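TICKET: design request
STATUS: open
ATTACHED STRUCTURE:
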């Protein structure tokens, strides 16, 4: 039994070609890079700026759209995965890591803005969110942010070094 990524859209017709494959690949790469071999599950909501704005306002009290939101199911310490401290899905036996919401509009815009394209941006946002689900954070400019950015770079380098299959 491996990792499971549940993808949903908040409205019909919302999507990007290949997004499902790219997101699943990024989730699995992040979990592998973090040394997590316990079967895990992650839920991913694909949305637009309007949808993520509503979620951001409701759950974070921030009245603007953002690129990605992460909702960890457990209180984990970055770099120290402890399966015994996690919620387990009784039906699947997988560790429930949590949920993420991705704004596809933001991914397209940021991919263009940063010059690396939508596909890479979508994978970066996914890796970023998985790290949040695993206890990484960047609330200040200190050590935690540096550690998270370092892991993002390492995981993205692994992803970019893997040929499409």
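STATUS: resolved
RESOLUTION: sequence designed for all positions
ATTACHED SEQUENCE:
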């Amino acid at each position: 039994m491996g990792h499971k990524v549940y993808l949903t859209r908040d409205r019909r017709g919302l999507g990007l070609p290949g997004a499902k494959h790219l997101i699943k690949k990024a989730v699995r790469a992040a979990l592998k890079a973090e040394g997590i071999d316990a079967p895990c599950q992650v839920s991913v909501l694909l949305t637009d700026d309007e949808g993520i704005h509503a979620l951001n306002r409701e759950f974070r009290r921030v009245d603007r759209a953002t690129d990605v939101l992460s909702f960890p199911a457990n209180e984990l310490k970055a770099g120290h995965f402890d399966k015994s401290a996690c919620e387990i899905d009784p039906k699947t036996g997988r560790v429930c890591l949590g949920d993420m919401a991705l704004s596809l509009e933001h991914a397209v815009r940021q991919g263009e803005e940063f010059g690396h394209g939508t596909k890479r941006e979508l994978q970066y946002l996914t890796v970023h969110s998985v790290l949040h689900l695993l206890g990484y954070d960047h609330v200040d400019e200190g050590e935690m942010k540096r550690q998270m950015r370092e892991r993002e770079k390492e995981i993205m380098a692994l992803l970019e070094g893997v040929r499409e299959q």
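CLOSING REMARK: The first helix runs from residue 19 to 33. The helical segments are 19-33, 49-60, 104-114, 118-133, 143-161.
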